[in-house]
Amino acid sequence: MTIPYITWMAILVLLPTLLIILLSFTDLDIFDLKSFSFNFDSIEVLKREEVTRAVLNSIKFSFLATILCFIIGYPVAYFLSNLKSKNKTLYVTLLIIPIWSNMLLRIMAWEKLFFPVSILNMFGVSFDLIGTDIAILIGMVSMYLPFMVLPIYSVLEKIDTSLIEASKDLGANETKTFLKVIFPLSISGVVSGTIMTLLPAMTAFALPERLGGGKIPLIGNIIEDYFLKTANINAGSLISVLLMILIVALFIVITRFDKEGETLI
Amino acid sequence: MKKLVELHNITKSFDDLVVIKGLDLYIHENEFVTLLGPSGCGKTTLLRLIGGFEQLDKGEIIFDGKNLQDLPPYEREINTVFQNYALFPHLNVYENVAFGLKMKKVDSETINDEVQKALKLVKLEGYETRSVKKMSGGQQQRVAIARAIVNKPKLLLLDEPLGALDLKLRQDMQYELKDMQQKLGISFVFVTHDQEEALTMSDIVVVMNDGEIQQIGTPEDIYNEPKNKFTAKFIGESNIIDAVMKNDFLVNFEGVDFECVDKGFDINEEVDVVIRPEDIILTKETPNKITGIVDDITFKGVHYEICVLVEGKEYVIHSTDPVTIGNKVSLNFDPDEIHVMKKSV
To answer: Are A181 and B87 spatial neighbours (Cβ–Cβ below 8 Å)?
Structure first.
């Protein structure tokens, strides 16, 4: 039963990963296998200022975006799950609809609005945000908010109402019921939402490139530069490996918060 | 006894469906009251109204002299054992039981003492750190009871808490709950659809049907003196027979006149007569008795359940002596075993 799974995982995950690790520590000019030799020269690249800045940028923006998504998303999810309206599905669908359109298009739509000359001038509004932190954060929050809301919503939705009644029965008012029962029971949704937001934000590259106007590179942009612009495959691979380690480490830390072990992802 | 809860003219409907129809009920201090009825009769809704989980449409609930109107559940000195126990899955046994006391901001030493006492009462000492998710139904039910009684409420509401347990455990818990109620000296309102459970545990049984109270009384009253056909049918097995009241102390059914102990009916009033299966004794065919043919006999352990056909109508009789299928037999019963009821509309 597990053979197809193992085969696919080997071809699609294990092999590319090993290849990237191998490429990190070789001296290889593109398409010239004769020049193949092991060395650890590429480690030097990590000391470059542009790389450390990109790593810090990635961490900064992904954490800020995740926190903002949580602050905005939790109340939205809570509101949706408590909705008694028959239109509940409609409201949830409205939240999902943006995901159906291509992310690159949505990024470019924001980009147009953030230039001083935009369609917003019609309403007497003009922004000059391209290349600012705010532009990137607005972009990230708008891209990833549904991924924070949905897992929290689905966990909140599943909480047995009798638990909330039991809490009130035992003397907890609305606030205490939320803090002592509802929120602890929704942790697995928060953890899933955090993973769904933090990790794509950390690996983002189209978004900072367009909305950052090339001034605010994230790790993704540096990797792209090394591979496509300077053809420095070894350095690009090494930074990819670094990013991977960072993500796996974060993943391990985040999932620790979910004591129930019910995180969806 | 002092009245603890007074329900006056309670009415509740969901959308257009009226589930409780102008109901009045008193619950006294230190009383074990059971709300008994088929599913959908409004007994759980009544319990939820007392607990504060549903809002009244009309009427009032007086608890310990105070009107409970607009008082949220967390301000009522009432605790509930929920049907599915509703234990907090993210907390262990100790934390579940301590929840209510923590909300009241009791100091941690007292909490510890009280939790230990409550766990001892439900025989769960040593389970403090156990996850409630890893417990059996019976254990979970004990945690739910401990979690409620640790708060020393004046009134404990129990919503079919024994429903999910197997027969043996259920019977054990029935005695334990009764015992606990007497030890704690608080009032219990217990909801069930199981008539045997109601009779075993209660001081007072409230028989409900269709949002209305059919009868309130001690288990003995309810069983021996059912007020109407519904109660007679719902509580235990019974033979309900169409009859005519000839005079005081004289009733006629199946074409035979019988002496009875009931009076106060109109002459020739049509009535229902109840005779419990265990009150009928079968003898050989005798004149001036109801006579029928043995149709079926089933061994039930303590007794045989015998089915006798009298002119096409079935009578159920419980007897320790077996009879042969196809034999002609007569039904014998004493005048005080005939219970005459007004015809219900």
So the answer is: no
Q: Is 90 exceeded by the pLDDT of residue B91?
A: yes
Which amino acid type is present at position A226? Y
Task: Write the DSSP assignment of B165-196 as a string of letters.
Answer: S-HHHHHHHHHHHHHHHHHHT-EEEEEES-HH
pLDDT value of residue B93 = 96
Provide mean pLDDT across the span B15-32.
92
Q: Please list, in sequence order, all residues whose beta carbon lies within 8 angstroms of the beta carbon of residue A32, skipping any fewer than 6 positions away.
A: none
Q: How many residues are present in chain B?
A: 345
Note the pLDDT tens digit of each residue in A5-22: 999 999 999 999 998 888
Q: How many CB pairs below 8 Å do chains A and B form together?
A: 65
Q: How far is CA A116 from CA A125, A215, B183, B215, in A?
A: 9, 17, 79, 80
Q: Which residue shows structure tokens 């990635």?
A: A58
Nearest Cα of chain B lies from the Cα of A86 at a distance, in angstroms, of 15
| Count of helix runs (H) and strand runs (E) in chain A | 12, 0
Instruction: Tell me what the pLDDT averaged over chain B comes to.
Output: 91
User: CB B99 to CB A170 under 8 A?
Assistant: yes
- Is the distance from CB of B162 to CB of B192 less than 8 angstroms? yes
Measured between beta carbons, which residues in chain A are less than 8 angstroms from residue B83?
162
Q: Which residues of B touch A171 (CB under 8 A)?
A: 74, 100, 103-104, 151
Each residue of A152-178: pLDDT tens digit? 999 999 999 999 999 999 999 999 999
B80: tokens are 């509930």
**What ipTM, to 2 d.p.?**
0.82
CA distance A79 to B176: 43
Q: In what order do the strands lie in the sheet with B250-253?
A: B256-259, B250-253, B239-247, B269-275, B339-342
Radius of gyration of chain B (CA): 24
Q: What is the pTM of this model?
A: 0.82
Nearest to A235 by CA among A245, A244, A226: A226
